[in-house]
Each structure stands twice: as C-alpha cells, then as structure tokens.
Amino acid sequence: MTYEFDGKKYEKASSHQVEWGEKLIEELALEGTERILDLGCGDGTLSVQLARLVPNGEVIGFRRRV
Asked: Is residue 1 part of a domain?
C-alpha cells in the first residue's frame, strides 16, 4: 500500500503546526548564512519562510514518504 500526499488536505489540517512553527522561527537569531534541515517539512510552508530568512544560506526540506 502506498500513501499519496494530499497537499490540500494537509494545508487544512496543519494550520496549528504553521502557527506554532512561525512562533518558533521568530525566536531564532538567524544571521542569514545558516544551513537548515527541515525534517518532516510537510508541504514546505515553513521551509519557505526559513529560506527567506537565510538568503546566503540553505534550507532543505525532507518529507518522509510512506
């Protein structure tokens, strides 16, 4: 059995995760050159926000495929 990622369904169900993640991101003292690994990035919403904060760095999002 394979699992097909449903982005629309995930977006609706993950609003609390995005809210929590945004609060955590605000607490980071990023310099803009960091290399960040976002494990379990889901649809990548927070990965994109992180990438904007590290213009001279790198963000890699990893979503486990089941």
From this structure: no
Most distant CA pair in the chain, distance: 43
Cβ-based neighbours of 25, under 8 Å, separated by 6 or more: 46, 49, 50, 53
What pTM, to 2 d.p., does this model score?
0.79
Q: Residue 60: what residue type?
A: I
20: in domain = yes
**How many domains does the chain contain in total?**
1
- Each residue's pLDDT tens digit, 42-62: 889 999 999 999 999 999 999
Please give the C-alpha separations between residue 65 and each of 12, 16, 19, 37, 39, in angstroms, as whole numbers.
19, 22, 24, 16, 12
Range of the domain at 13: 7-62
